[in-house]
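Consider the following input, taken from an annotated entry for ubiquitinyl hydrolase 1 (Zalophus californianus).
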Amino acid sequence: MRVKEPSQALPEKAKRSKRPAIPRDEDSSDDIAVGFTCQHVSHAISVNHVKKAIAENVWSVCSDCLKERRFCDGQPVLPSDIWLCLKCGFQGCGRNSESHHSLKHYKSLRTESHCVTISLSTWIIWCYECDEKLSTQCNKRVLAQTVDFLQKHVSKTQTSAFSRILKLCEEKCETGEKKKGRKGSSVPSVKGISNLGNTCFFNAVMQNLAQSYILMELMNENKENGTKLKIFPSPDTRLDPLTVELSSPGPLTSALLVFLHSMKETEKGPLSPKVLFNQLCQKAPRFKSFQQQDSQELLHYLLDAVRTEETKRIQASILKAFNNPTTKTADDDTRKKVKDLLSERSLY
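Applying the prediction step yields:
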């Protein structure tokens, strides 16, 4: 249901104009129908304010819901439908949620308009004043630039950042092993983990995983971008063995590997699990509330999410070996082969 403020409604001619449809670029991330020009874009968007807000706040979390700490059936209420104000960078739950903080933020009395917002899950752009979806193709360049920045921010935090951290972490581990020399101590190192706020349940799980050497060995086997993986199908499938080249691990898997390597460092002082915890919260928003949770449930969510990332990673590599970028472009025979090959690969 659309929400409009009668007092703020503008005449049809003043608030919008139509342009001829523009052919879509297949590589564009814009899924909105082209043709609508919003008159509020020029003064309702600030790239600098958005950048500053993103650097200071947790990504994709409604700050007002977090402050209210509301519960339902004993569970914290934290909506996953988060919208970001393109004027100030405020992140609030959508108007389909119970609290619709994003809409309340727009309605707050201000000297400047905060009417243009974007969904962090679907990248839909919306103007509350016009009550319309917006397209980057039919509005001022600042809109496209801001959306491009947000999408690149997500991409960087999920890929290259973790690869660079992983290399630095491994170098530190190697240096630490050299410093140990020939001490030959058989006592495993135990490192403290900082409490982010009622995250004892998370820290307890991570301390146990840090001492699970089999898990470390399995993750280290396929951690590198370009790692060769050979899959041996069962005779029933009548498929030949296939060697694929893996891409970089997913964001949660990379963060977990970085964290486990950091736990082996010899440097003193507790380790902050903030990066790993934030990545887990992206997969399981129920843990965003910084309330006490069940450790077994957290372990289940963590390992299941890592398994899902690795399955998608191997599936993408198999599709690439068959010259298909996605399952949508593959024919039925190729899809069956991919399914059979995936079922033969045992994932942690």
